[in-house]
Design goal:
Elements lengths: L5 H13 L7 H10 L9 H7 L9 E6 L2 E6 L15 E2 L6 E7 L1 H4 L9 H9 L8 E5 L7 H11 L6 E5 L5 H9 L2 H11 L9 H26 L3 E5 L21 H19 L3 H14 L4 H13 L3 H13 L14 H10 L5 E5 H8 L18 H18 L17 H17 L4 H14 L3 H12 L9 H9 L21 H13 L5 H12 L5 E3 L21 E3 L3 E8 L5 E8 L10 E6 L2 E7 L5 E7 L7 E8 L17 H6 L4 E10 L1
Helix pairs in contact: 1-2, 5-16, 6-9, 7-9, 9-14, 10-11, 10-12, 11-12, 12-13, 15-16, 17-18, 18-21, 19-20, 19-21
């Protein structure tokens, strides 16, 4: 038997790296297959050319000719991505109905309610009820995770369906296009790097970043307009909104900026004072301190959020909206792999430029504002940061419905009440259940998690068993995919194929999800199911420090969300907040032995600085820390620990540091220079006796 050539080996490796095949990498896959010899030698060149027009995919759909008519069928080659699309096997040939193609990302997909309840389903029922002239056909081509490049490709492909109108509901995943554009331009990178080296930090780069972004959106609109004009197909663009009220910045999005020593010290003092004032109801002092935070560092979301909270307490909704939009847009500075969102610069560019390209626009932020009588949009309209609730879908699609009627001069006299188009209670329960999980994974507040857990159980009592299994699974040290409880969850719920990824975090990324487990436990207990002692036993069995050593640098023992810092990855833990928390499971009679090795990189002047160790908010000791690695062994006497969960906290000193040691030529140099490292931990273990 002959051995494959080195060339064939390389091609096979490249081919394997592409799996699973997606619509975006399909052509590359086919090209590699052809190079490996997987073509039909009996097919003549003329036959191949003749067949090409019928082999052009539209997303996961491939053309299929039956009785001389072109259908589009789901391609088994793309089975791995079927769950990202509508649950539709076949797109039929064009009929005499008005064909409306719906394009977008997960918001348009109806994420968390899909496939039983989606924007396309609601729009279809509105258009095809009380029809007097003709019927409508909605082709749902929305795809979860679709970015700007993908939606541009899908828009081009969908012209083969002979649409009478194309409706976009998109813009949440476009930051990746901005990052790609900057990453592919040394000139843009240099311009940004030069701006961020001054004392004002990364905030000064916002106008330039927005200018880059506006150009990208403008080019996209120009392309859409050109294709629309060429094919004579009108386009309607619905601009998405963000959950401004209830979706706040994650721990990763609150990474502190690199600031001169005095500014950094003032910012942290203002932050702590603002938090204390808000907690005591003193909105006046909180507002003053939050304003100071913003003046020092307008790239950070937290000052805007605190100021917005003060405005909301004083019923100043217009001002609150402004500050929450400013907080949302700080994700332009890329502290982390932030939640999808439509930035102000996207909204404004579409509103100002779309008409010049012949594109009709629906301003959903304005539609939602009118629906809420000027109040800030929150959980009434959203299940998480950007995905619509049932009410959100209803309000958005009612606005689209009216625009579609105008386009086709449909003057029907009666209209279906959109509020009557609702999903089943089981769909609502699962939607809120996964909304709770999704919000927890993105570091949202306990109140939001409790709300979704409560709503879930109130809609469908059978979800209680799923909650118990979830709490069991997440409380164990083993990876979720080897837990028996995950198997039970999937056995009991047959509609989870679209959301199973939420149940299986990336390798070594699992964390305790403490607030989510607490929320589920609270809701279950209020319904007569108390699993408190059951979970305590699991935690003690799997994680207790008694007679074992626990590595606290494992993600499970310190992470609280699944967003990640986007700069350079290191072999040790970098503290990017002035406080670092670690979660330790013990019983109250245990004496703990803690070993920690840490440093503060780049200290300008050593000054006998100390970090403070707290256990459950009680100070234990102060530990010397400097620019060189130091190792400390600390004995924590009986009496400091409580039964179950304990929080160990290191509070770092605020010292003047230099950026001189940073690698200015790395691909993450801009981010690494922009954000503060309060300390680095090389090792941290705890054991109990």
């Amino acid at each position: 038997m002959s051995r494959p050539s080195e060339l064939h080996k390389e091609l096979a490796i490249d081919l394997a790296a592409l799996l699973p095949v997606t619509p975006e990498n399909q052509q590359t896959f086919l090209d590699l297959m052809e190079k490996l010899g997987y073509t039909n030698p009996q097919t003549s060149e003329e036959e191949t050319v003749a067949e090409n027009p019928f082999k052009s995919h539209i997303g996961i759909y491939k053309p299929d000719i039956k009785d001389g008519k072109k259908y589009y069928q789901r391609d088994i080659l793309f089975k791995e991505t079927w769950s990202f699309f509508a649950d539709i096997q076949t797109i039929p040939p064009k009929s005499d109905k008005k064909r409306v193609v719906l394009l977008g990302e997960s918001v348009t997909r109806g994420f968390l309610l899909d496939p039983e309840y989606t924007p396309a389903i609601v729009l279809d029922q509105l258009l095809n009820s009380n029809k007097e002239l003709y019927g409508y056909e909605i082709i749902d081509l929305a795809e979860t995770n679709l970015g700007m490049a993908g939606i541009r490709q899908r828009y081009t492909e969908c012209m083969a369906l002979e649409p009478d109108m194309v409706v976009f509901l998109a813009g949440n995943n476009w930051r990746e296009e901005l990052l790609s554009t900057i990453g592919n331009s040394q000139k843009k990178q240099t311009a940004l790097q030069e701006l961020t080296l001054g004392e004002d930090g990364i905030a000064i780069a916002k106008p330039l970043i927005e200018d880059y972004f506006s150009t990208i959106v403008d080019d996209f609109l120009a392309y859409v307009g050109t294709v629309s004009k060429k094919n004579g197909v009108p386009v309607l663009f619905a601009i998405p909104e963000f959950n401004l009220l209830d979706c706040r910045s994650t721990p990763g999005e609150r990474v502190v900026s690199e600031l001169p020593y005095e500014k950094l010290k003032s910012w942290i003092e203002a932050k702590e004072s603002a938090e204390e004032s808000l907690a005591s109801g003193d909105t006046e002092t909180c507002s003053i301190q939050a304003q100071q935070m913003i003046e020092i560092d307008p790239s950070h979301p937290y000052g805007f959020e605190l100021l917005a909270d003060c405005c909301i307490k004083n019923e100043q909704y217009k001002e609150a909206r402004h500050y929450l939009e400013m907080a949302r847009d700080t994700a332009l500075f890329c502290r982390t792999n932030s939640k999808p969102r439509t930035f102000k610069v996207i909204q404004q560019t579409i509103l100002s430029k779309a008409a010049s390209f012949g594109i009709e626009v629906i301003d959903l932020p304005a539609v939602f504002k009118a629906h809420l009588d000027g109040k800030v949009p929150g959980k009434e309209l959203f299940l998480d940061y950007c995905h619509f609730s049932v009410t959100g879908i209803q309000v958005a699609m009612d606005a689209v419905y009216k625009k579609v009627l105008q386009e086709f001069d449909d003057l029907r006299k009666t209209h279906k009440d959109v509020k009557t188009i609702i999903p089943s209670n089981e769909v609502l329960a699962l939607g809120h259940f996964f909304a709770a999980i999704h919000n927890a994974h993105w570091g949202q507040s306990y109140d939001i998690l409790l709300y979704h857990c409560s709503e879930s159980l109130s809609k469908w009592k059978d979800i209680a068993k799923t909650m118990v299994y979830y709490c069991d699974m997440i409380s164990r040290g083993a990876a979720n995919n080897v837990c028996k409880s995950l198997e039970k969850i999937l056995e009991d719920n047959t509609k989870l194929d679209r959301y199973v990824h939420a149940l299986v975090p990336a390798r070594n990324m699992k964390n305790m999800e403490l607030e989510l487990v607490d929320a589920m436990t609270t809701v279950l207990k209020s319904n007569g199911i108390d699993i408190t002692n059951y979970l305590l036993k699991i935690r003690l069995d799997d994680h207790s420090i008694k007679n074992r050593r626990i590595n606290l640098l494992q993600n499970y023992y310190h992470a609280t969300s699944y967003d990640e810092y986007q700069g350079q990855k290191t072999a040790f833990l970098q503290a990017r907040d002035s406080k670092s928390d670690f979660f330790v499971i013990a019983d109250a009679k245990t004496k703990a032995l803690l070993s920690v090795s840490f440093r503060i990189p780049g200290i300008i002047s050593e000054n006998n600085d100390t970090a403070t160790l707290y256990v459950n908010d009680t100070e234990v000791t102060k530990l010397s820390v400097g620019s060189k690695w130091q190792t400390h062994s600390i004995e924590i006497p009986v009496g400091f620990l409580q039964n179950g969960l304990n929080v160990f906290r290191i509070k770092w000193p605020i010292v003047a540091t230099s950026r001189a040691l940073q690698d200015k030529d790395s691909s993450t140099a801009i981010l690494d220079a922009a954000f503060r490292v309060f300390g680095e931990i090389g090792s941290m273990t705890v054991s109990g006796v």
